[in-house]
């Protein structure tokens, strides 16, 4: 039996219970999906253009996860 990853962020003031579960969990899932696509592409681009490849590989962590996790306050 497998369980889905659950991310919990406590101490936030974005909702009355001060804990977030849905936003960080969906952020992690979006991060994982985008990383599966973007990391291999970034690795190929890195061979020719180092900085562009690094930006592509960092995109899931620096853009996708924060946008998804912060868009859902619970």
TrEMBL record:
It comes from the Eukaryota. Keywords: Membrane, Transmembrane, Transmembrane helix. The chain crosses the membrane at residues 28-48. This is Cold-regulated protein.
């Amino acid at each position: 039996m497998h369980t889905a990853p659950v991310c919990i962020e406590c101490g936030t003031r974005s909702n009355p219970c001060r804990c977030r579960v849905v936003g960080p969990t969906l952020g992690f899932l979006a991060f994982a999906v985008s990383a599966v696509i973007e990391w291999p592409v970034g690795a190929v681009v890195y061979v020719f253009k180092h900085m562009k490849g690094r930006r592509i590989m960092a995109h899931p962590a620096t853009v996708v996860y924060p946008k998804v996790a912060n868009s859902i306050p619970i």
